[in-house]
From TrEMBL:
Taxonomic classification: Bacteria, Bacillati, Actinomycetota, Actinomycetes, Mycobacteriales
Annotated InterPro entries: IspD (IPR001228), IspD/TarI (IPR034683), IspD/TarI_cytidylyltransf_bact (IPR050088), ISPD_synthase_CS (IPR018294), Nucleotide-diphossugar_trans (IPR029044)
Alphabetized GO MF terms: 2-C-methyl-D-erythritol 4-phosphate cytidylyltransferase activity
EC number: 2.7.7.60
Gene, per the UniProt record: ispD
PANTHER family attached to this UniProt entry: 2-C-METHYL-D-ERYTHRITOL 4-PHOSPHATE CYTIDYLYLTRANSFERASE, CHLOROPLASTIC (PTHR32125:SF4)
Protein name (Swiss-Prot/TrEMBL): 2-C-methyl-D-erythritol 4-phosphate cytidylyltransferase
Site (Positions MEP for the nucleophilic attack): R155, K214
Organism: Corynebacterium suedekumii
Amino acid sequence: MRVVALVAAAGQGTRLGASVPKAFVPLRGRSLVERSVTAMIHSAVVDEIIVLVSPDMEDVARRMLGELLCAEVPVRIVHGGGERADSVWAGLQSIPDDDAVVLIHDAARALTPPGMIARVARAVLAGSPAVIPVMPVADTIKRVDGDTVLDTPDRSALRAVQTPQGFSLAQLREANVAYFADTDPGFTATDDASLMEWAGVEVRTVQGDPMAFKVTTPIDMMLARTITDEAEPTIFEVPS
């Protein structure tokens, strides 16, 4: 069964405060999207990579990806939409077959280890229709209404979710069709796993990795620059 990776790079990422969309911000000489695509290639489980970009950034993406577009693993560019769910749906529609595993990845998680990518893909290939990498929650979490605390969930049952998230392509397509056809789905799909949960599909977890953090704010970028300046940038990788 083929494994197709969608790398979401169409967002603006305004919280980073950069002059270009976040996925195209350089990190030690290589943009976040370049690093994410390279990690997919190095995972050795991906057969095709689709990079989702806004139409006005296609030329920039082609220049940045450069030789990666001619890599051993086929890489192609598809125009994304205004919202993340729209971009992913555009990517899913560009895949000609249903008999595949699809990985949905945020370009902003540019330091995700290839081994973690492979871990997600293999779990789906083994039969799970939806798989997400997760990390334990270190902070105490409060549920609030305005500035009033409602309660404190037991953090032992909470997990922080990362990407790539892996799915049966056919089932993720079905969930998207139902979601976009529903005029009032009752929620906004902030990630693809929540869409599958809404569709009644069981979502399983695998071990995430600290290196798969999302570059969202200037502090995140400072951390990423510090890590990539080290001689061994994969020092924090969790073993497969």
